[in-house]
Amino acid sequence: MTEKIKTILKSFIPANEPRYRVIALVAAVFCALFNLHTYFFNPPENLFLTAGVILAGFLIISAFFLLVSLNRYVFMALVPLIFFICSIGSYFVYTFDISITQNILGLAFDTNAEEAGALLGLDFFLWLAAHLLVAIVLVVVFVRTIKSRMPFKRLCAALVVLLVIAGTLIATVPRKRIPRELTRRDLVYSTMHSLYGYTRTMRQFSAPKKDISKGDFAYNNRDLVLVLIIGEGARADHFHINGYHRTTSPDMERLNVVSFREAMSSFSFTRKSVPCILTRAASKNYELSLQETGLISIFRRLGFYTAWISNQRHSHDNHDTPITVFAREADVVIFNNRLRADQYDYLRLDEELFRYMDQVLTLDY
Fold it and tell me: Which pTM value belongs to this model?
């Protein structure tokens, strides 16, 4: 019975098929360039699990490139494109020692051209060029080695073998540990998984929110001007008023301000920390910021004239971001940093917001 199975497999998957060697080379280079670096800055705890994750990823990538190789022209076009796109993500993975997560994608999509441009230099473009060159070399090897088309039945048999082995690895490891590790380690898998999560979160922004302003709030109608300055990027331990050795906060000390030394931002990035500042959400229940309106809606319902004045650029006009969804609760929304094409290097200072504040305070906007 065993000999019969071997005979059948050899008829579908001959050992001397050069296509397999080339595809194995392409998959190995791909995995080496895009998947292995995370093991250096985030070492694995279980070597056997690591071997299983690397092997499963290699088999899945091999199956994909084998399928693409069915048409040489598709292979010639798609391989350089895939290497080029993946090299964009790998540059930041290598440079900042990060994994591609939903929040990382959110930071990328919510930013604007000026902020993104500050991270790109000559080394970035050299990085892309080097990976594109590697892909072109692999395509040349493929074209020179593969002279004929692969029979469709043989291709299907090879794909089934690769995916069965990969599926067996994934299914036999308890508690779905290989898929979790693939999400962390595999660039393509982590990107697709994170992109799905990001898209789902973006849909929640446009969904109706619970209006918390309809709660039991009251105001005695006295004249009151309240200015909330949000600067979640500042570190409390670097203010002299909080005990820092340098005089970094002389104006605040001169004005006798009250400093809440133990207050901390819920997250280390703006797209999540600001919604927590403006809503009842915190790091443990961040979902509230997706389900409820913020404090601006409360002041507006109580009769206050509300305004959102920002020195950041409105990243997207077509959809909300975690910041703009709360900015739109105000009567007036002002984004100072709407640059023209000839102002790409213009530095916007916070002092420029004073004129907007004067207009709002005098209701002259």
Answer: 0.64
